Amino acid sequence: MEAAQETPDRPPLNQDALGDAAFLAGTGIPQLTVVETTGSTNADLLRGVTVDPRAWPDLSVLTAEYQSAARGRLERHWEAPARSSVSVSIVLRPVNADGRPLPTQSYSWLSLLAALALRETLQDTAGLPAELKWPNDVLVRGRKIAGILAQLGPIGDGAAPPVVLGTGLNVTLTEAELPVPTATSVLLEHPATADRTELLKGYLTRFAALYRSFCDADGDPAAGLAGGPSLHKRVEHVLTTLGKQVRAQLPGDHEIIGHATRLDEYGSLLVVDAAGHEHVVTAGDVVHLRPWTPPGATSGESGYA
């Protein structure tokens, strides 16, 4: 672990590999742009789809070596050293095989789909035991390694609005560089590889396959996905939040304490309180979702990392 505290080598992304024609054709990515520095890739793409929407077709990708003004959920700011992370945003214009736009209520599943693709990448490429924490985090051994942020673009010409989906993955951050003590990075978890190019390619490949299958199913989370179980079942299977006692903090100092039981058809979390009432907690409303331990119980009895 001490060796990992030294500032590791941080080579640039391999633009030749990312721009490889076979890779782009295989994923259906029409364009992949790498920039050295920017404020926020999500903000750049939101501006792009507003100013010149035709320049940013479905599955257009923007990735940056360094972001100076990255934002997470609820405008939370975060920053990482240059070339220490995978910071990537994707333009999504979801339509089915017939070109019909997906119902916008299916959009709530896109960040979970991205988290699932990233989990599979960390597992298959880096050999890390990743899990999902609702609504938008990827964990390794209980510590946050990545976050997902989906933002709705403008409605234009009567068409369904695009979505800009941003992903931030901690790759070579040392313990001293982590934003919070409960975070981690690929490097700190002793991976099979911490090559950012391989991780990015793996993520985009898996995301594109799951996304296309989801679109072909008309955005139905209960439909079989990419030759296997539904998105709903896949997410629930790896969601560490379920089966645990949680405290959901909501706007206006409201909170719900109870047992996280399942996801509904919109990807919202269902929490059953002590009185047996079931509450629907949506990703857009929740401020924090934290483990909760009843008074007198030890943290190992009911909380989660």
Task: Describe, in plain words, how this protein is organized in 3D.
The structure is a single chain. This protein has 305 residues and is of the alpha+beta class. Helices cover 24% and strands 26% of the residues. The chain has eight helices and 16 strands. It has helices at 2-5, 15-18, 21-27, 41-51, 110-124, 196-216, 231-237, 299-302; strands spanning 32-35, 61-64, 70-71, 77-78, 85-92, 130-133, 137-140, 143-152, 163-170, 224-225, 228-230, 245-250, 254-263, 269-272, 278-281, 288-291. Strands 1-2-5-9-8-7-6 form a seven-stranded mixed β-sheet. Helix 5 crosses helix 6 (196-216). The longest helix is centred in the C-terminal third of the chain and has 21 residues, at 196-216. The protein is globular and about 55 Å long. Residues 299-305 have low confidence and may be disordered.
